[in-house]
Amino acid sequence: MDVSNINKLFEENLTVVNLGLESFAENLNNEGVRTVQVQWKPPAGGNVEIAELLDKVDSIKAKVDVDAANKKAAEIINNGKPTVIDISTAGEAIPGMRKNLFLHAGPPVEWERMSGPTRGAVIGGLVYEGLAETYEEAEKLAASGEIDFEPCHHHATVGPMAGIVTYSMPVWVLENKAYGNKAYATLNEGLGKVLRYGAYGDDVITKLKWMESDLAPILKAALKLHGELDMKNIIAQILQMGDEGHNRNRAGTSIVIRELAPYLVQLDVEKEKLVKVFEFLNSNDHFFLNLSMPSAKCIIDAAAGIEGSTIVTTMARNGTDFGIRMSCTGDQWFTAPAPMVDGLYLPGYSADDAAPDIGDSTITETVGIGGFAMAAAPAIVKFVGGTPKDALNVTTRMYEITETENKIFQIPALDFRGTPTGIDVLKIIETGILPAVNTGIAHKKPGIGMVGAGLVKPPEKCFNDAFKAFVEKYS
Amino acid sequence: MKRVLVEKDSYYDSVFLMLINREVGQIEGVTDAVVSMGTDVNVTLLKETGLADKEIEGVTPNDLIVAVEGESEEVVEAAIAKAKELLDKKSSSDDGENYKPSSLEGALKVVPEANLAIISLPGEFASREVKKALRKGLHVMLFSDNVSVESEIELKNLAKEKGLLMMGPDCGTAIINGKPLCFANVVRPGDIGVVGASGTGLQEITCAIEKFGAGITQGIGTGGRDLKNAKIGGTMMLMGIEALKQDDATKVIVVVSKPPADEVAVKVIDALRKTGKPSVIHFIGMEPGKQEGNLYFAGNLEEAAGMAVALSKGETYQKRTYTIDRAEIDAIIERETKKMSSNQKYIRGLYTGGTLADEALIMFDREIGGIYSNNQSKKDFIPPDPNKSIKHTIVDLGDDVYTVGRPHPMIDPSTREDRIKIEAEDGEMAVMLLDIVLGYGSHQDPAGAILESLKNAKKKAEERGGYLSIVTSITGTEGDFQSIHETRNKLESIGCVVMPSNYQASTLALEIMRKVEK
Question: Taking the model in full, what pTM does it have?
Answer without folding.
Answer: 0.77
